[in-house]
Amino acid sequence: MVPFANNNNGNVRVSVEVQTDNASSLPLESVKIGQRTVHLTLPVVLSPQQTVYKFDVQPAEYLIPGNITQSTIYINIQDDNIQQNLIALRLMIDDLEPVTIYPIESLGNEYRVITYCQILGSCFLALSTVPNTGPVRVNVTLPTENSMKVQYHNAFYSEGQQIQIQLLDNEALLLECKQCDFTGTLIKSSEKIAVFAGGIDTIVRRGDVESTFLAQMTPVHTWGKDFILVDSNIDDMGDMIRIVPRYRETVVKVSGQTTTRINSTEHYIQGALNRGDIVHVTANKPIMICQILTTGSKQGLMLNVPPTEQYFEVDFHIHCGYNGFVIDEDVTYYSEPRIIGNSGYIAIKIDSNSCQSSRLGFRHSTIFGQRDHAGTPYIKDTLYFSQPFLRVCTD
Asked: Where is the IgGFc-binding protein N-terminal domain (predicted)?
């Protein structure tokens, strides 16, 4: 993870929430920022399946646009059953919306990114190394379609150019583009890296706050061809989506009707969900979809939508504290299911107020959930639950 600070005047508080499948917690062994081992507060147990840890990021550890810094946050969880028990790892940096974080096992060495900064602000991407990998060579190829000006060290790069970077252990790099968009940027590295992207001081939809938001990008070998998208039902205009392809000549269908062909890997689709929509998106080749929305506080948020190929394939459980929908295979034992076109999936509404059990269990499914974030009720925690340890998907 990388520490993205809104507050440049002092330490930034980071909260880490670990959600597990059962009552046995996954304790944080250690947290390092660069070379520094940080002090963790005593864990706060929200439920038998949810534990929150907190620590501070110092100003010297902030990311600096165009410069390599000792800013990588490395979270170490020691548990032999982590692949069976981990449901979600969520980070909240200061007053930014919570971000879903993937384990090192899910990372890769080839990415394309989605960013967003159409109204004010700037777009960014951030790179972070994996511990004990030695020098990592990274090539960042900027899109050719739009005018770009990106600084790295003392040089400026424009559209279509390649930025050649070398990162060492614990190092991170922030690249920022004012009044231009990184969407479609290709990143290749000699070793596994983590990639994050988003917008800085920008406005999303009808939001009235210039907000900063980020999402972790998934490597191209984990992308899928089949998606279910759930509108957050917060904004009258509906949530926005962006879709990027892995390969040229990718055909994308929305709810089996609207068909769009993406001719270049640098091109992307931008669309909107109708308020309250649940839609089925398919493609003939792997794609990545990000959903961009405003939360209840009008803060921006970007979600990486999991393909059905990354849904849980065994029974999994979350604490019954979310409103939203379970997306599950179309089976007959649910009452009043909402059928999602011809997708083979249904949506089952969940309501934290009427939940009778402390646990919810489903098979080959995801959950689109919303809740007030613990301790900060003005933040609306919105996420898709999917398998943290990503699978390799076929082309």
From this structure: 101-322
To the question of pTM greater than 0.90 for the whole model, the response is yes
Q: How far separated are the first and last CA of the chain, in Å rounded?
A: 28
| d(C-alpha 76, C-alpha 79), whole Å | 10
Stretch 171-183: mean pLDDT: 93
- The residue behind tokens 């393909």 is 307
Q: Round to whole Å and give the CA distance between 343 and 326.
A: 14
The DSSP code sequence of 273-300 is PPTT-EEEEEEEEEEEEEEEEE-TTS-E
For residue 230, the model assigns a pLDDT of: 95
Instruction: Give the mean pLDDT of the chain.
Output: 86
For residues 135 and 114, what is the distance between their CA atoms, to the nearest angstrom? Answer: 26
- 4 versus 28: the higher-pLDDT residue is 28
With 60 as the cut, is the pLDDT of residue 360 above it?
no
CA dist 177 and 124 (Å) reads 6
CA distance 298 to 130: 34
- Single-letter amino acid, residue 19: Q
CA atoms lying within 13 Å on the CB side of residue 244: 24
Is a pLDDT exceeding 50 seen at residue 358? no
What is the SS3 assignment for 54? strand
pLDDT band at 374 (very low <50, low <70, confident <90, very high): low
Can you read off the two tokens belonging to residue 219?
């490597």
239 has a pLDDT exceeding 50? yes
Quick one: three-class SS letters along 71-136? CCEEEEECCCCHHHHEEEEEEEECCCCCEECCCHHHCEEEEECCCCCCCCCEEEEEEEECCCCCCE
d(CA 246, CA 265): 6
pLDDT (tens digit per residue) in 267-295: 999 999 998 899 999 999 999 999 998 87
Residue 256's closest CA among 290, 231, 227?
227
Angle at 94 between CA 92 and CA 95, to 5 degrees: 85
Asked if residue 138 lies in contact with residue 187, where contact means CB atoms within 8 angstroms, the answer is: yes
- Measured between alpha carbons, how far is 92 from 90 in angstroms, rounded to an integer? 7
